[in-house]
Specification:
It is built from 3 helices and 12 strands. The chain folds into 2 domains: about 80 residues, Orthogonal Bundle (Muramoyl-pentapeptide Carboxypeptidase, domain 1), CATH 1.10.101.10; about 140 residues, Glucose Permease (Domain IIA), CATH 2.70.70.10.
Length: about 230
């Protein structure tokens, strides 16, 4: 019997374990238009999300990212074994409670206000705000790669984009300091920078966004989850 390692079935990677999972998803009635190429991209993520829902996962638990329980169940149907050991990347937890440790959301996603983003005819907040003092650390919410880290965010001020292992891009805005560089690999919980009030900000806070898909553009956002 073939054994699939959970640690190898990750968004953005290409290998035979992913090809095995893709074949199983297709056999279960979840189409992947490009076929079982061995590459874990948006098509495979959508198919895996459909499988998670078929298994009874709901909400944020049906995120299209394999976990031990869902992959083991898929393996039972498709007759492959699963090795769940070392599923998280070395050096940190896979997820953390908040991008600003010990701080909660103080201004919600989609709240009405004098914003340029008008998805329903009203100005809406494109992310979540975490009020905190200047200098408070901000951390990676998931493992991933720094897509950008610069002071060219305009209204966003100093900002960082994190391309996470679930396929989404998370943006950290209004920072006072940045401690990572473009292309750097980071782990969940790793400090990326510090809270500030750069750009268009009335006081120190982290403005935090999540892309709808695998790339970020203004307004192409969803309520942050990880």
């Amino acid at each position: 019997m073939v054994t699939v390692a959970l640690s190898r079935v990750r968004f953005g990677e290409t290998n035979e374990d992913i090809r095995t999972v893709q074949k199983a998803l297709i056999a279960r009635g979840h189409p992947i238009p490009g076929g079982p190429t061995g590459f874990f991209g948006e098509q495979t993520k959508a198919a895996y999300r459909a499988e998670q829902r078929a298994q009874g996962f709901t909400g944020h638990d049906a995120d299209g990212i394999p976990g031990c329980t869902s992959l083991t169940t898929l393996g039972h149907h498709a007759h492959f074994a699963v090795n769940c050991a070392h599923a998280a990347r070395p050096g940190g937890k896979r997820r953390v409670p908040s991008p600003v440790p010990h701080h909660k959301v103080t201004f919600a996603f989609f709240a009405r206000g004098p914003y340029a983003w008008k998805p329903d005819g009203f100005g809406r907040h494109t992310g979540e705000d975490f009020a905190a003092d200047t200098g408070v650390p901000v951390v990676a919410v998931r493992n991933g790669t720094v897509a950008w880290s610069n002071g060219n965010g305009g209204a966003y001020g100093q900002w960082i984009g994190l391309h996470a292992d679930n396929g989404h891009v998370y943006t950290y805005c209004h920072l006072s300091q940045r401690q990572v560089k473009d292309g750097q690999k980071v782990t969940a919980g790793q400090q990326l920078g510090k809270v500030g009030a750069t750009g268009n900000a009335t006081g120190p806070h982290l403005h935090f966004e999540m892309s709808k898909g695998s790339s970020w553009s203004y307004g192409s956002v969803a309520k942050p989850n990880w």
